[in-house]
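Archive entry. Fields below.
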Amino acid sequence: MIDHDQLIESLGQSGRAAARQLAHSTAEQRNGGLIAAAELIGQRQSELLSANQADLASADARGLAPAMVDRLRLDPDRLDAIADGLTSIAQLPDPIDRVLADWTQPNGLQIQRIAVPIGVIGVIYESRPNVTIDAAALCVKSGNAVILRGGSEAVNSNRALHEALSDGLEQAGLSAEAAQFVPTQDRDAVGALLRAHQSLDLVVPRGGKGLVKRVQDEARVPVLAHLDGNNHLYIDASADPEMAKNIVINAKMRRPGICGALETLLIDQAWSDNAPKLLTDLIESGCELRGDESICAMDSAINAAQPDDWDTEYLAPTLSIRLVEDSDDALDHIQRHGSGHTDGIIAEDTDAAQYFLARLDSAIAVHNASTQFADGGEFGFGAEIGIATGRLHARGPVGLEQLTTFQYRVMGSGQTRP
Amino acid sequence: MIDHDQLIESLGQSGRAAARQLAHSTAEQRNGGLIAAAELIGQRQSELLSANQADLASADARGLAPAMVDRLRLDPDRLDAIADGLTSIAQLPDPIDRVLADWTQPNGLQIQRIAVPIGVIGVIYESRPNVTIDAAALCVKSGNAVILRGGSEAVNSNRALHEALSDGLEQAGLSAEAAQFVPTQDRDAVGALLRAHQSLDLVVPRGGKGLVKRVQDEARVPVLAHLDGNNHLYIDASADPEMAKNIVINAKMRRPGICGALETLLIDQAWSDNAPKLLTDLIESGCELRGDESICAMDSAINAAQPDDWDTEYLAPTLSIRLVEDSDDALDHIQRHGSGHTDGIIAEDTDAAQYFLARLDSAIAVHNASTQFADGGEFGFGAEIGIATGRLHARGPVGLEQLTTFQYRVMGSGQTRP
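PREDICTED_STRUCTURE:
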């Protein structure tokens, strides 16, 4: 029987040693490792596809749902996309050794705050094999060692992809242990990873709500994640009806299944004359509406919202809608039901917008734009490992810069403290 | 019997409501509350001193050690210092609503990262009653609600000081619950506080190693703290002997009991000709030395270091000393024995210094200056709530800025995501 705590501790120690080497590698070396891995993925296409075939065959045998099987599947196009992702990450600016602050004290001490890697990061993910490469590449680019724990349904694909990555890193003169793969599929290994606060500095879960909840509940290691994206838009009295329609339909319907999708719409009663037209447009766009009493009275096609609708992240073309008295009423609603992910206001009145944004307790507060912009790429971060709704270290999109921490460097000329 | 989890949850809810109000109070209001509290401390001197007398009497009855009794004692001068501390914190720049970043995406979306309060902060501390005011003032100034849990030996003093603070906040139109005091001395309340990750956003322990260790071991709430300050200085081959002497004696002997004090000195063998003179100077300054074999051979007054000396934070005029082969050997030693607090190098050779600083995995890396500069005041932060050695959110001195987090504000003109 494997002692999982011991296993994770030993991976953590190798990871720590690799992290020290990575932290002092050059950006060229780290980028070179990622590009070498991209080339290996191209060269090993047939091996990678046959590893994936093994996963697909056992998914078939276990009767996995078609949507799960689709997530699992690799094909030449998807492999190309994975390799391209590596190349684009390699081309992003180097996030470490940035001077974040630099000042001189009256006694002549120069103090700098310098971006440095966090250390050893655990990534726990589910069926999509591309996460093996995407998440690991972001960690390595930012000078962190990564310990990967993928879903058992993709184990062969993940292992083969991981091998390509660590071989690429080795070709660039980096330690293969900069990216390690947990060598057992036992679920207890996840528990051990979450407990290992001596060995790991951070855990990032990538997957469904069940996974994120388990990680948040059990982890003794700090976690960057979001559980829900129960996002709200409030239509202020001053909102332009055409803009409101475009934003709301985009925020809900563009891709209803992403974490930045709109889930509840709050309409100011002073705007209610414009509401019936918007409701019709939403219904015509294919959205199912669930309203409070006032909203239901506007259109017979609208179902009555149940109490738990206000707390539901549908991730589907369904929207709950409430008429609110004013912006404070809207803020109260969001405070009670929101998940701190992305919320916003549609308003022509800039003062009303500023008042609202400043009182939102959300990682991302939006004015006159779609909530679906809640994405590292859309923020200009190049790539993201996820979105965080915690309050410390990073909130919102977690990109390369958010995978760094800092060190103070104090440079003197012999100063002693009086 | 009290349900402590329920008690803390209820304090957390009041704290959350107060935090929302605080976050949108003006800096003038928050500063006004702190100044009003400072005035109340002046006006209530006799009540505060008699509350303190009650604590001193029971300390006497329980036979508390004289050093503990001294920490507990308030007198008019100490009360004045506490009030002055409040006034200086009120005068520091406002840490919230700062624009930390501001950029515009090609689609015209303007994105700002704005400093906002963290939320509800628990402060767990031991005998010094001044922490009640110092810690709470930093939290309130930065827009956070605070829940205070002081040591039972100072309960009367703490309660009276807390009352002055919350009365001052009320006078400025703020919620008295911006600063709450845990109303029971039961140790289980600390456990409940540490578990309350739904109610609290952060815990800061202020006290001895026993307290910090309990907090780090038990907390489900994020913690900013340091357990040890096992700090090192490495004397490089290029070090100036006079500068080395001044820095080492200051780093060890100025105040041996603070967390930034030097605990182990590593001397490059290429500098060993200068070592005997330094050792003599150290001994003459009143320092007990514990050396490895080569160091012991230099002076018969030096005791042999035992293996656990290298891991010991003496907090006393005692110093362990080792001769190292080179800077990599010194870095290896620090990596094995250091606590990630403050470590440094003394060197005239700037390249050697840069090499060393960049490889130190410490919150604060120092070149040619005393480790005793590891302090928020010396960094220019005005005040600090402590020093953190964790890797996320804040490292090094935790001042007002480190008690904030941020929110992204995305401002558009109707943008939808393609």
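CURATOR_NOTE: The first helix of chain A runs from residue 4 to 23.
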